[in-house]
Structure formats: structure tokens, C-alpha cells
Amino acid sequence: MAPPPADIPFVDLKAQYRLLKGEIDARIHKVLETGAFILGPEVAEFEAALAALGGARHAVGVGNGTDALQIALMVEDVGPGDAVFLPAFTYAATAEAVVLAGASPVFVEVDAASFNIDAADLERRVAAVQRAGKLRPRAVIAVDLFGQAADYAALTPIAERHGLALIADAAQSFGGALGGRKVGSLAPVTTTSFYPSKPLGCYGDGGAILLDDADKAAKARSIGFHGTSKVDRYDMARVGMNSRLDTLQAAVLLAKLTSFAREVEARERLARLYDQRLGNLATIPARVPGAVSVWAQYTIQVDDRDGVAARLKQAGVPTAIYYARPLHLQTAYGRYGDGAGSLPVS
Fold it and tell me: What does the mean pLDDT of the chain come to?
């Protein structure tokens, strides 16, 4: 009798480490030898490399992707009484950062093909908030779901027309592009995450904010370092938080950058293979014209989803549901939405 198939890791971080072991170990050892564990030289080196990769003038490393979103909102002085628009179909961190900043999330429908924020529904939701007069429309967070950038060509004029700060949540799309422009340059502010399972992931928590505005970059850096003044390190210029990218994580990320472009190309080859093999069996991901996806997830729609997942599990093939419940139906965020049926695509 044949043995049962070995389980395939959903994200094989060990295999990736084996490929990059020499570079990663050397980078980590250097940090251990110097002892510069907080804001060591590797952090600045990585920030410069990250900014170049994302097509931005500045990159600020922070503790994680959620902090990156919260700090981005704080840089724009978003707070109580403000409405922040975001897709209902995303991870809780996007809404969490809004609430932690003291603002109110307003959930927006997603496009049925790409699952990214629906620009037409965003326009409707902004108008509805303006009519109600209880909140000030202040910002929109566009989440680049599954690795593919949102439609910033449609979102940008809406944000400009209504005076909204436009923030790209690129936790799943960093390394991609749209219309020849890199993710990191599609919105005035871009945030990303280096959670280990992300396309560019570290060995713990980490995140970053990318932007062109030098003053806002300095403000973001100050907020992440307890609000410290650039002029006087003992003077707190503003209320901040403790959120810095660790030197060890920067070292790991620098090592991973050496092969990141090749990994993105490999993900695209595999995605094309999935397209060919699954195209007649499932609804495969819609490809946005002119987009380069980093395929954080390759997400399909099938009849009998749970049955298919169970049979794959028996064969040792892992799957996951992204996301089983939209934000407006989550216990913590239900009070900000309009309940079941209000966002049918999500």
C-alpha cells in the first residue's frame, strides 16, 4: 500500500532559505557582530533599496504592515470625525489601522473580477457620507488584493476631486507594477508588509511606508520613533509610537532582495501554468491589462469550495480562504457597516 502523500507547505519558507542561506547567514552574522540591533546601517541601506524598487523617493521602515497604515493615516492627521474609505473584502488590519487612528471606516464594494476596490462604488459612498454630514471624508485606502494593483487611474481623480488622501495598501502587491509604473509610485503614499508569507517577507514582523514628499517622510519617521524631533532628539515634537524596522529583519530583507526579481518571474510562470491547467475547471484570476502581479495568492472560484478544499487536503495540497468573512460582517467592525446583503460582491 502506497504511503499517504506528504503535505506541501502553503508557503515554503524553508526552501527559500536553503536557496539564500549563504547570503542570509552572512547578513545576520554581521549584525550580530556589530551589535547595532536598532536602526543599524542595514536599515538605511534597505530603505534606499526599497525606495528604488518601488519607484519612490523615500522609504521608511516600520515595525509591521498595520503600523505602516496607522502611521500613514497619522501623517495625514486623520482622526476622530474623519471617514476613511476601504474595501470590505480585505484583511482586518486595514480597518484596524483606521479605528486605531480614531477615524471611522466606511466599507466600499469590490470589483467582481479583480476583487479590488470598486471606484464607482467609492464615488457613491463618498457622496453618501457628504449627504449625511456626520463624518468628514478624509482618506481612501486601496488594497491591492492577491498581488495585483488596484485601479489607481480611476481612484486618483476621485481622491483629488473630494480632497481625499489616497493610500495604497500594497502588503500583497509590492514588487508588481501597473501601466509601466511600479507599485510604490501609484499613489502618493504606499504601505507594505514584510510578514514572512508575503512575496517579500522577513523572518518576523516588518513593514514600510513609501512616498515622495520629504516632509511627510520625515513626519512618518518621527511618528515611528515616539514622535522624536529631528532637531532635538530629547524633544518629542508630536505624539508618536514605537515602530521601527529591526536591523536583523532589514538584513534578511537585503539578502532576499538579491533574488526577488527572479522570484516574481517564477511566480508568474507558475501562475501561467495554473491558468492553463485550471482554466476549464474553475474561475481563474482576472488579469488587469498592463498589470504585473506578484501573486501573493493564486485565488480561484469553484463550485463546492469546501469539498474541493477537503479533497485537495487529502492529497497533501494546502488551500486557504481569502477571506471567509468580509469586514462589514465581522464582530468588531459590524457597527461601521450596513449588515448582511449591503455589499453583495464582498
Answer: 96
H or E element at residue 190: strand 189-193
The percent of residues in the chain predicted with pLDDT above 70, rounded, is: 99
State the amino acid at position 118 in one-letter form.
D
Identify the band that residue 1 occupies on the pLDDT scale cut at 50, 70 and 90: low
DSSP letter, residue 5: P
Sequence letter at residue 226: H
User: Does any domain span residue 312?
Assistant: no
Enter the pTM of the model.
0.95
Domain assignment of residue 123, yes or no: yes
CA 103 to CA 109: how far, in whole Å?
19
Among 9-18, 26-35, 37-46, whose mean pLDDT is lowest? 9-18
Contacts of 282 (CB under 8 A, 6+ apart): 300, 301, 302
How far is the CA of 167 from the CAs of 6, 124, 151, 183, 319, in angstroms? Answer: 42, 19, 13, 12, 30
What CATH number corresponds to the domain at position 76? 3.40.640.10
Confidence at 230, pLDDT banded by 50, 70, 90: confident
pLDDT digits (tens, 9 = 90+) for 139-191: 999 999 999 999 999 999 999 999 999 999 999 999 999 999 999 999 999 99
Cell for 22?
Answer: 549563504
Closest of 35, 51, 61 to residue 250, by C-alpha: 61
Name the residue range of residue 23's domain.
17-253+325-336
User: Each residue of 98-119: pLDDT tens digit?
Assistant: 999 999 999 999 999 999 999 9
Q: Dihedrals φ, ψ of 47, to 5°?
A: -60, -40
Q: Count of domains in the chain? A: 1
Strand partners, 137: 83
Beta strands of 45-122 (E only): which ranges? Answer: 58-62, 82-87, 104-108
Tell me if 182 is assigned to some domain.
yes
305 domain residue, yes or no: no
